[in-house]
Design a protein that fits this description.
Elements lengths: L17 H4 L13 H9 L18 H10 L11 E2 L11 E6 L4 E6 L5 E6 L5 E6 H16 L2 E9 L3 H5 L3 E2 L13 E5 L2 E9 L7 E12 L6 H4 L13
Antiparallel strand pairs: 1-2, 2-3, 3-4, 4-5, 6-10, 7-8, 8-9, 9-10
Helix pairs in contact: 2-4
Length: 244
C-alpha cells in the first residue's frame, strides 16, 4: 500500500455507515504509506535532483531532513495550509526546535533530547506532546496538505452527517492519531487517487463551537473524474476551483 486503496478494495458495494468506515479492521495503517511514492502520485515525479542541506543542519532529525530533501525535488509547494520553517532558520531553545507553524497561531516542534517526539502549541500556550512520532507526523501532514494543494478539489464547511457514508464510500480511514489542530476529532480518508479531510463543522456565531450533526469536508483528487460522484450528492453546496 503506497497511497492507493489496499489490494482487493472495491467500490462496487452499498455505501457503508460512518461507523463501519471507522472500524479498526478496515483502516489503513500509516505504516502502509510510503512517503516518496505518495508525493509522486499526488505531486508528480521529481523534477530536480535532491538539494543537500547545509552542514549546519546536520543536527536535525533524520525524518525531517528527509522531508526537506524530498520537497527540494519539486518546484511546487507541498505544504500550503501551514508553513515549514526553512531548515537553516530552525533554532533550539534548549528544549524544543520549531520546524512548522500555522502563520503565527500554532507551532510544531521536535524535542532536542528526544528528536522523534513532536510537540505542538497555540501561540503563548505550553507545549503539549503529540502521540505520533516525527516520522508518522510528517506523513500525516503531507497527506492532510495534499487535499488542499491538489489542483482538483471540493470543499464544504457544513455537510450533514447523513451524507458522510456516500462521500466516504470510495475511501478508507487512515488510522492517524488525533490532532488538536485546527480543532480535535480530525480524520483523513484515502481511496484510489482520492483524499478527504473530515473535521467538526463550526457554528457561525461566537463562541464558534462545533455544530452538532455537521462536519467540514475537504476532498482532493489526482484526477477530476474522481470527484464527479461528489457533485451528484444532493443538498451539498461544494466550493470548487475557480477555473472550473
Amino acid at each position: 500500500m503506497v497511497g492507493n486503496a489496499p489490494a482487493g478494495y472495491s467500490r462496487a458495494h452499498a455505501p457503508p455507515s460512518a461507523a463501519h468506515l471507522c472500524h479498526a479492521s478496515l483502516m489503513i495503517s500509516p505504516d502502509e504509506i510510503d512517503l516518496p511514492t505518495f508525493l509522486t502520485e499526488w505531486h508528480g515525479p521529481p523534477t530536480a535532483p535532491v538539494k543537500p542541506l547545509p552542514s549546519s543542519c546536520s543536527w536535525l532529525p533524520s525524518p525531517l531532513k528527509n522531508w526537506y530533501e524530498l520537497s527540494s525535488q519539486r518546484p511546487t509547494e507541498l505544504v500550503v495550509v501551514k508553513e515549514m520553517i526553512t531548515p537553516s532558520d530552525i533554532h533550539s531553545d534548549g528544549h524544543v526546535a520549531v520546524f512548522m507553524e500555522d502563520h503565527g497561531y500554532h507551532e510544531w516542534a521536535f524535542g532536542i533530547n528526544s528528536p522523534d517526539k513532536v510537540f505542538e502549541r497555540e501561540s503563548g500556550n505550553p507545549w503539549e506532546e503529540l502521540s505520533e512520532p516525527l516520522s508518522e507526523f510528517l506523513i500525516h501532514n503531507a497527506i492532510h496538505e495534499a487535499a488542499y494543494a491538489s489542483d482538483f478539489w471540493r470543499s464544504c464547511t457544513q455537510v450533514p452527517d447523513s451524507k458522510l457514508p456516500e462521500i466516504l464510500a470510495p475511501m478508507q480511514m487512515i488510522s492517524f492519531k488525533d490532532w488538536t489542530w485546527p480543532r480535535p476529532k480530525q480524520r483523513i480518508f484515502m481511496g484510489d487517487g482520492l483524499l478527504a479531510n473530515i473535521g467538526p463543522a463550526m457554528e457561525d456565531h461566537s463562541p464558534w463551537s462545533n455544530r452538532a450533526g455537521y462536519v467540514e469536508v475537504q476532498a482532493g483528487a489526482t484526477d477530476p473524474a474522481h470527484l464527479e460522484y461528489l457533485d451528484s450528492i444532493p443538498e451539498i453546496q461544494w466550493t470548487r476551483p475557480a477555473w472550473e
